[in-house]
Amino acid sequence: MTNHGTNLAGRLHAALLPDDRAEGEAPRSTADLVLDAATRRFVDVGVKATTMSSIAAEAEISREWLYRHFSNKGAVVAALVHRELRRFIDGLATSVEWNDDVVEMLTETFVYCVEFFRDRPVIDGLVGQVGTMRPEEFRTRVGEIVAVATQSCAGYLVDLGGFDAQRAAFISETLVRLVGSTLVVPAAQVDLHDPTVLRDFAARVVPAVVRGC
User: Fold this and answer.
1) pLDDT tens digits, residue range 76-124?
2) Nearest CA among 168, 161, 164 for reference residue 104
3) How would you label 8-18 residue by residue, b for 16+ Cβ within 10 Å and e otherwise?
4) What is the H or E stretch that residue 5 is in?
5) Residues ≥6 apart with Cβ < 8 Å to 165
6) What value, to the nearest 5°, has the Cα angle with vertex 72 and ends 66 and 73?
7) I need a labelling partner for 82 at 20 to 30 A (CA). Which of 42, 125, 143, 170 fits?
């Protein structure tokens, strides 16, 4: 991962995936095949209707092997969330050409986030995972991710942008919540599926948030 620990991608990696390797991809494993199979099941029938037996059948492995590595469906979901976070952060590190213009970097990051999360079948499937845990547990997990993303972004603004901590926190949470809204409600008056419209939207909104807070 480039500039690990200095750019926003490096900060997110350190905060959200502290035990993950910072460089390179692990060899494809049976666990990856299980997660691929789980993704297909979640997309096809939803998380709630997916069973451990159906995941094993989809992955063409035994139920015994599956239960040796994943104690229950919640463990599969947790591993899938981890993998998607890693893909998101690794993609952010390579998709944005990091420089000292913080507003430009936040604008590019916003565009990347919307493009990554928008209409992504696995993300849609995970959003429907309430059936695998109590609603308050789901909200807590999402809240934890939002909090870490906000803190990482705020730290980036303080250390590299010279913002005071309170202003940085306000800007960060506003942008994180705005990205989150595109996941919950992907279509509205502004067509963020159009790359030109998305970039124009980001170029108008992100600087306004940064400079207006």
Assistant:
1) 988 888 888 888 888 888 887 778 888 998 999 999 988 888 767 666 6
2) 161
3) bbbbbbbbbbe
4) none
5) 154, 158
6) 95
7) 170
